[in-house]
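note to self — DONT lose this again. spent like an hour looking for the file last time. sequence + predicted structure for the chain T wanted, 462 res
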Amino acid sequence: MGVTRDVSAWVARFSIDDAPPEVAEAAKAGVLDTIGVILAGAPEPVTRIVAEAVAEDGARPVADQLGADLRTSAEGAALVNGTSGHALDYDDVNDSVRGHPSVAILPAALAVAQSVRAPGRALLEAYIAGVEVMAKLGRAMGPAHYRGGWHATSTLGTLGAAMAAGRLLGLDAGRLEHALAIAVSEASGCQQNFGTMTKPFHPGHAARCGVHAARLAQRGMTGAAAAVEGPVGFFAVFSFGEARTSGLAGTLGRPFDLVSPGLSVKKYPCCFQTHRAADGVLDLVEEHGIRPGDVEGVTVTVPPGGRQALIYERPQTGLQGKFSMPYVVAAAILDRRLGFESFTDAAVARAGAQALLETVTTVEDPTIRDAWNPSAGGHVTVEIRTRGGRWARRTDHPRGSPAAPLRRENLVAKFRDCAGRVLEPDAIDRALALLDSIETVLDVNTLVDPLVPRRTTMPARR
């Protein structure tokens, strides 16, 4: 058997009963966080644009946009919710993926689960399987994929989403294999679009394509048996020959990536490559009472490759600011926190921010050892120079990472903050209660009800 068949066979036979209890708990936390950030992103311009395009086409109404009144097809809901979940760049990160797994997998799984009226347990099972496949394929890909400019959230996310969707559609191993092969030809996503509306579109695209691939396979469409591992398959094309596929099947669920290395839950709504620097700056500002006018210069030292995603030195928009180390540092000094309000166009355009970011320098230190992922490996050091002295802080693990996890109350507080942008307090309370017992929910549509503030059913297209 090859990788394509091995992966599909594993997804077909996976049962949540065979996983350690901590896997289900990690999955529930991932679902909670991801639904929160989907809700927070619902009012964002990119979400509105995508939702309007989906609504204009019309579809059989079987699944919902969270935080809004659009009810549409499974593919349309997966697209809109995936885009919404990444609109603020506030969604979780995984070391193996070198990207964002949940925001590609959960919208696909949730949309299909609604369409087939699946129970919460089946949704959890599909989410776990999709994340696991995405992560283990990412680990096999190695660093060349991301280094070459591909956005793993979108490319790998398409394959993982197809497995999650196929699982909920009840595909057997053979049809899952074809779904995976179809997804290989739908995978895409380029880092040049970071800092624009197209970046959050990537996971929405992945989620939609995953659902599409699974539905086509369900109807009998076929693909190559070696679509992933073949000589001109996914690995060869996307990892430039550096993928290591030997023994991949034996790594699935051994251990589950949701547990080890786990998910990093974002504390700030910006690129994860800025988070360790942000932690260091915020600590120094608080400890030493540093004011913006005191700062003469800031140096941020990162591992090799630790600024690849940070493509804006002089950002002009809120989206660009999320991918700018100088701006994130400047905003942390000015605002003494990093929240939604720090990443508006007006916030980035502030004269104080534009002046302060000119004092920030980011350097890569080749002596910092990082064998895998410069966003999480090695360490980051921040040095702030003021008229009164200089202070430095080294950060090895960002807050919210598996090594420095957020507490349950922090996760709930983040959810309430995110959901509060579109939901009333009583709806938030009901949603939290259902999410806390998701494995007992008999129909996922019950779970979605409090997440939709108003419901307008779209007419089926004839």
